[in-house]
Structure formats: structure tokens, C-alpha cells
Design brief:
heterodimer; A: about 110 residues; alpha+beta; Folate-binding fold; two-stranded antiparallel sheet; 2 helices; about 15% helix; globular; B: about 190 residues; Gyrase A, domain 2; Alpha-Beta Plaits; about 25% helix; binds zinc ion
Chain lengths: ~110, ~190
């Protein structure tokens, strides 16, 4: 069971109160972009075993979208943070480093 | 305006009871909850100060509940909802906000008696221990297969809000959960 804390309403709930929104920090490539960029945006995902960044929505709660950093193998949650950012904040990166030294995910480490 | 509530005043008997509270005025108010004007009109209408996250200030059928960082639930007597929306619209004119009378889209059910906490705990993924959830606490969550919200009254009873279209299902859930006696865990 995944336990998440919504950074907007402060509620800590189990995953059935939330809804997963897929991989986080995607850059949208729309009309006019190259085929490679568009394919990457639409289809290519990290899908890692270990440290991962995702979007979640507090669907049976305050309704807000937020980000979560977690381990896909252990379900350990390193932290949740605002949706209004394009990369994980430093305190989240530090929390991951403390538990998984040497981690990397896309351009982040 | 609806003339009867979805559950039409139904109730159960026992040590823990489930009861339709009848028609309840409810207004969804979205906007900047820190706005002085917004706080003032809410206080004027309900007599209550702005609740903090996870709280509801309710007295009888009037009050305020914190729904999200930009959403408030305003409770008023059913017949006063339309007038309250008009007063909010007038007070907040020019601000970015939204006030909608959702009274007839919702149902409000009371769970009362010694086992009230356990009835909720059987249906919702929420810590209902007295340390975690006391009078004035408010929570939006999942109740079996539907979204629901509830708060605790000063007497320890609970008030559950759900959509009117699933009121029958919610009443069934709550009354079934209230049938077996409290195990005394909470
Ligand atoms: Zn939330």
C-alpha cells in the first residue's frame, strides 16, 4: 500500500484516495516540433525500478494535482511537492540522496 | 429548488443510528480564502471565522468547511442558499471567485451514537481515533466506492456529505456498517 501526503491539504492518505497521473516533469512537444521530440513526449518513459517521479491527484480529497518522489520497488515515498514546478525541489533531491546515494533519473541526480 | 431530500428523512434504529438530516443549503465557494472581503462575507452569512485546513466550524445547519486551499463549503439553511449566493456575488464583485448553490446536488447524513467513529472507520481510509479526529475536524475522502466528506460535531456524532445521486448507496453503506456493534477499538 502506497501512503502519500498531499502537499496542498496536508492529508496523509492511502493510494485509493488518490489517482496516479503518470510520469512527472514531461516537456510538452506539440505542433511544429520534430518527430523525435513528439514521439519522446507521447510515448517514451523512464519506467525505472527504483527512484521515480510521478504526478498524482488528490481525487477523493482536495482535488489538487501534485508531484511525488518514490521508489517503485519498495513503495517508499521520499516526499511529495507542489505541481507548480518543472523539477524536483532540492529538499526532495536531498531526501532521496540520503536514502539512495548515487541515484539518477533523466537529467536529475 | 428541491422540495424533498434524496433520502426523504429516513433513519435507522439502534445504539448507533444513521439518519437523513433533510434538506441542507450548501454553497461551493472558490476563491482566495485569505481575501478580507471573502472572510467578511462568510462571517456575515454564517457567523463563523475562516476554518483552517482540515477543519469545519458548524453550528446547527450553518457553518463553514475547508474543502481545499481555494475552496470553501458554506452551509446555510436550505431556504437561504440562493439569497446567500447573491450576497456573496455582491460582496466579491470584481474578485476572481465562484459561488454556486449546490444544495440540491448533495445529501447530508448524520451518524450518531457510541459507535459513530467506527462506522466511518469501517468505510473510509481515515484514522478515526480520538487523537487524530476530534470535534471540528473535517475530511474529504473515499467512502467505499464514492467520494464523501464528513465532520465531527461537538457531541462526537458525524455528518457525512455525498452527492445526491449516490445518497441511496451511501445510506446503505452507513446503515449496514452501523448494524454490528462497536468493537471498541477506537
Ligand atoms: Zn489534498
Amino acid at each position: 500500500m502506497l501512503i502519500l501526503e498531499c502537499p496542498y491539504c496536508g492529508v496523509t492518505g492511502e493510494e485509493t484516495e488518490f489517482h496516479g497521473g503518470g510520469e512527472a516533469h514531461l516537456t510538452r512537444h506539440g505542433p511544429g516540433s520534430s518527430d523525435d521530440d513528439f514521439e519522446n513526449y507521447l510515448f517514451l518513459r523512464e519506467n525505472p525500478r527504483g527512484v521515480h517521479f510521478e504526478r498524482w491527484r488528490h481525487v477523493n480529497g482536495c482535488g489538487k494535482w501534485f508531484h511525488a518522489a518514490r521508489d517503485t520497488a519498495t513503495l517508499e515515498v521520499f516526499g511529495t511537492y507542489s505541481a507548480q514546478t518543472t523539477e524536483p525541489p532540492q529538499d526532495i533531491k536531498d531526501a532521496i540522496t540520503a536514502k539512495r546515494p548515487g541515484w539518477s533519473w533523466r537529467e536529475f541526480k | 429548488m428541491s422540495e424533498t431530500s434524496a433520502l426523504n428523512g429516513r433513519g435507522t434504529e439502534g445504539t448507533t443510528t444513521v439518519r437523513d438530516t433533510g434538506l441542507q443549503g450548501m454553497i461551493t465557494l472558490r476563491g482566495n480564502l485569505a481575501s478580507t472581503k471573502l472572510k467578511a462575507i462568510c462571517k456575515e452569512i454564517t457567523g463563523q471565522p475562516m476554518p483552517k485546513a482540515g477543519q469545519a466550524h458548524v453550528s446547527g445547519d450553518t457553518g463553514l468547511a475547508w474543502m481545499s486551499p481555494d475552496e470553501l463549503l458554506v452551509l446555510v439553511p436550505h431556504g437561504q442558499a440562493a439569497d446567500a449566493v447573491a450576497r456573496i456575488d455582491a460582496a466579491l464583485a470584481g474578485q476572481h471567485f465562484l459561488a454556486v448553490n449546490v444544495s440540491d446536488a448533495r445529501a447530508l447524513i448524520a451518524v450518531e451514537g457510541a459507535g459513530a467513529r467506527e462506522v466511518i472507520a469501517r468505510l473510509c481510509p481515515v484514522d478515526m481515533s480520538p487523537e487524530a479526529f476530534g470535534p471540528g475536524a473535517f475530511r474529504r475522502t473515499r467512502m467505499a466506492q464514492i467520494p464523501a466528506a464528513f465532520w465531527m460535531e461537538q457531541d462526537g456524532s458525524l455528518r457525512v456529505i455525498c452527492f445526491r445521486s449516490v445518497a441511496e448507496y451511501a445510506f446503505g453503506l452507513l446503515s449496514t456498517a452501523a448494524k454490528s456493534p462497536a468493537v471498541g477499538f477506537l
